[in-house]
Every structure is written in structure tokens, then in C-alpha cells.
């Protein structure tokens, strides 16, 4: 391995917290904090991290060639799950159904409130409250749709009433 | 002179925004003690902006993630409507706005 590949920049790409990692490794090995020891430890870490990355890439490719049922349980357990933010589907439907101005003034605000309160509940570790907020605010969105439609109809009727002789 | 008539919800919103304070819709709901509902507050706010009682601006904060939110503020027209409602309430016996 060339010295260029063992540079702090190279290590920084692998580990953004490389200074702390290097000093911790030096302490673990009982080495003095000298420049030579820092270079030595840095080289060791780079080799270890690259080996880890190669192993991870190899394992990932191997798993991808297998059907999901054949994956070991720990791999399935570790695979990340992506959740849509609450109100994502309502956001899509309502932005399609209503004009941009109305959507921004009414529904986008209600969805933003729902997400804010949902995030607060999750941050407090209260998943039941978070689920309740999502259910309640979806009901409120439906109520807002009804209210908006009724207001629109009322306005039209008022206009027609004024036009009558 | 044509005095604007305010509904109970409109009065509640203008009353909270008295003094030129800026509020989010959710803050208005929380401080209304049940007078304003989450499902209808934004419809009412949008209608009041159309009538000229309120003005709204989109919050611009690059540090804040998520959908942009709107802050609402009373206008001169809104202040006049609120003063008229206050005067009407004071003229009534008991002075409460219904």
C-alpha cells in the first residue's frame, strides 16, 4: 500500500472521526502518542476498514444472488426498513385534487402540523400517541376537505342568490 | 358605515393575534381552549386572509426540515373589525361576544 493511500484524507473518507479513532487505538495498544505511532495506527485502521468494506460488499453481493427466504435471520433482522412520513399519501392525493393555493394554505399546513406532532411523540418514545396523532389528523384532514367543499358550495349559492331578481 | 360581522371562530383568532403577534395555525388551536378545531382552522384562516383580516407569510428557515409552514398576522382591516366587535360586545349587557 502506498503512503498516498494511507493519508489522513484517505482515512477521513473512511472514518470522519479518525482523530479520536486513532488516539483510542493508540491507547488500546499502549502506544505513545508520537507521529510515527500515529502513522502506524492510521495504516492499520485503513487496512482493517478496507477489509471490512470488501467483506461487506462480498456478503451483500452473495445475499443478493440468493432468494430472500434463504437469507440468514440476522441479515433479515438488520435490513433497514424505510417508512413514508405520515400524510405522504394524503399529500399526493390532495395536491392533485385541489389548486396549489388552496393546498398550500390549508392541507400542507395540516400535514406539517401532523408531522411535527408525530415527530415530537416519537422523540418522547410514545409510539401509541404517535399512532393516535396520525389517525386523528387524517380524520381532521377529511373534515377539512368537507369544510372546504361546503364553504365553496355556500359561496356559489350566495353568488347565485344575489343574482336572482 | 358598514360594520364587519365576525363569527365566533374569527373573533377568537383575531383576539389571539391582537397586538401584531404572529402565530402558526397549530398554536392558535392550542391556545383557543377548544374553540378552534384542527380540521377547520386552516379553512377559517384562508377565508380570513381572503377577506383581508389576516396576512400570512411562509416561514423561511433553511435549518428547519419538512414542509414550509405559514405564520399569520392581523392586518389593519382585521384590527378595525376586532375593535368594532369589541365595541359591540361592550355595548351589550354582560359584554360577552357570542
Query: Per the principal axes of the C-alpha atoms, what is the gross shape of chain A?
Result: elongated
Order of secondary-structure elements of chain A: HHHHHHH
Strand count, sense and closure of the main sheet of chain A? Answer: none
Binned, the helix content of chain B reads: 40-55%
- Name the biggest interface: A-B, 25 and 19 residues
Q: Give a count of the beta strands of chain B, DSSP E runs of length 2 or more.
A: 2
Distance between the termini of chain B: 22 Å
Mean pLDDT of chain B: 84
User: What is the chains' assembly state?
Assistant: heterodimer
- The share of residues in extended strands of chain A comes to under 5%
Written description of the protein model:
The complex is a heterodimer of chains A (165) and B (98). Chain A is mainly α and 165 residues long. In chain A, 77% of the residues lie in helices and 0% in strands. In chain A, helix 1 (8-14) runs parallel beside helix 3, helix 2 crosses helix 3 (35-65) and helix 6 (100-123) packs antiparallel against helix 7. The termini of chain A are far apart. The model of chain A has no long low-confidence stretch (mean pLDDT 80). By secondary structure, chain B is mainly alpha-helical. In chain B, 47% of the residues lie in helices and 10% in strands. Chain B is built from four helices and two strands; from the N terminus they run αααββα. Chain B has a two-stranded antiparallel sheet. In chain B, helix 2 (25-31) crosses helix 3. The longest helix of chain B has 16 residues, at 76-91. Chain B is elongated, with a radius of gyration of 14 Å. At the A-B interface, helix 6 and helix 7 of A face helix 3 of B.
